[in-house]
Amino acid sequence: MYNLFAFCATRKTVCRRAATSRLMVGFRKWYYNACGFNRLGLMRDDTINEDSDVKEAIRRLPEQVYNDRMFRLKRALDLSMKQQILPKDQWTKHEEDVHYLEPYLEEVVHERKEKEEWAKK
Amino acid sequence: MTGFRGFTHLSVSPLSLSPHCFLLSSNVFKSPLKPVSKLPSGLLVASLENYSPVSKIGVFVKAGSRYETAENLGVTHILRLASNLTTKGASAFRICRGLEAVGASLSVTSSREHMVYSLDCLRDDFEGAMEYLINVTTAPDFRPWELSDLLPRVKIDKAVADQSPQIGVLEKLHEAAYKNALSNSLYCPDHMVGKISVDHFFANNYTSARMALVGLGVSHAAVMKVGEQFFSTHTGFGAPGAVYRGGELRVQSGGGLVHALLACEGAVAGSAEANAFSVLQRLLGVGPHVKRGSNITSKLSQCIAKATTQPFDATAFSATYSDSGLFGVYVISQADSAREVINAAMAQVTAVAEGSLTADDLTRAKTQLMADYLMSLESSEGLLEELGVQVLSSGAYSSPQTVTQSIDAVTSSDVVKAAKKFDESKKTMSCYGHLANTPFVDEL
Hints:
CATH class of the largest domain in chain B: Alpha Beta
Subcellular location (chain B): Mitochondrion
Strand content of chain B: 15-25%
Number of domains of chain B: 2
CATH architecture of the largest domain in chain B: 2-Layer Sandwich
Low-confidence stretches of chain A: 1-8
Structural class of chain B: alpha+beta
Shape of chain A: globular
Number of helices of chain B: 16
Protein name (chain B): Cytochrome b-c1 complex subunit 2, mitochondrial-like
CATH topology of the largest domain in chain B: Cytochrome Bc1 Complex, Chain A, domain 1
Largest interface: A-B, 7 and 7 residues
Distance between the termini of chain B: 50 Å
Keywords (chain B): Mitochondrion, Transit peptide
Mean pLDDT of chain B: 86
Largest sheet of chain B: 7 strands, mixed
Oligomer: heterodimer
Number of helices of chain A: 6
Helix content of chain A: 55-70%
Structural class of chain A: mainly alpha
Radius of gyration of chain B: 22 Å
Distance between the termini of chain A: 46 Å
Mean pLDDT of chain A: 86
Order of helices and strands of chain B: EHEEEHHEEHHHHHEHEEHHEEHHHHHE
Shape of chain B: globular
Number of strands of chain B: 12
Strand content of chain A: under 5%
Strand order of the largest sheet of chain B: 1-5-6-4-7-3-2
């Protein structure tokens, strides 16, 4: 179940938006919990597939955010090795999930596209 | 990338100038030098229409290394390298490619008093290229990862400067001569590499009240329109005046030579005393006037040649700033004749102070100074720098005629007085090299 979301969390899926309406909020919470990575204490942006753009965006993270990401990943790997999950009160809640990488990623993609535009000229 | 050069220089005897095209046909062209305008935001705007196909615009900011504080020593070095980083209006890539596309070039120079951003472009591309200059000087983003990518460049700059004894000796002289402000080095100190935050310094010093916008080869109206985009309400902090203390710094670096720079407190830029010091400097000798020639006409060289047969070089040194100045002699000698050479150089200045100065010498020195000055205005870089520094320091400019007249007005008693000042005042010395036989400043 965790693998299913990780597989889906390519950048295209991440960038698509579900409809932002009160009807969809319930569905999104259900889907978030069903994905299951929150049971390992991860956030959505921790599970993103690392291609070159994502790697550059991660390089640009401020130190604190980067350290938090590393900690969460380490904890999740440790739990996965032990075949355990966190107790329910420590699961990441949908409201607490911060898309910290998104602004940096958008910037990186924008810069790359700009370079490609100029290269065409 | 065309023309991204960041380099440092001292401003020496900034006096005024006039456009060289005046000499061509002043009755055909109307006066191209418009009066300096001051915008409500405090920005000073000056322009000179020299009908050249190339425009050159400079933004002069009072953000030299003298305005650094103890918490951010070296920030001007970073800013000097950071001019091509992402701004709010254009990414770093776009600035580079955009300027290249029109064949423009953007360069940054910084001195102890000013940061100068100058842009050369073809006259027709003025509007487009100015957008980049405005972005760089008013709205840089200072992204943390871009600033940390600058660290290798800072280290290279420092390594290159370390290789040059001339730069070392000049920096050490200023460090020894002043207690604050002017003692700050143009290069980032070792302990600050990687630890500098730029935003505070930028916010305090890059305000429109501390800037001047100078254009060569552009119409005044166009420059005024651009000037209106520079606006900021922050007034920034004042800076302390420089306090001269006189001291000594010696750097043992081995090798066979000694570079020694001996100076006293000189005159403030633009004053009559500064003219006297400049004439004295030319009198004593500033290097060969014939390319690759010997220095036999220089008084310093003649005097020192009597004291030693070993090779040496000596020039008089003068630097002026807005509230202080330095004047002295710079000698390069072999390690074991350093004592004789320095003493002989000092003896020569003392001789001038005692009045051994003929009218011929004085006229020659004055003519050389005038010629040097006027020739420095021949190039657009020299012209822009002169115009900008004058406008920023005093809010107005004086024409070259005024300047040459004020040089002419220097009398031999002024020069003798200047030499006496060197003789009697507390000296500063910085030396570099194999210092076993080099006297200390209190032994001179």
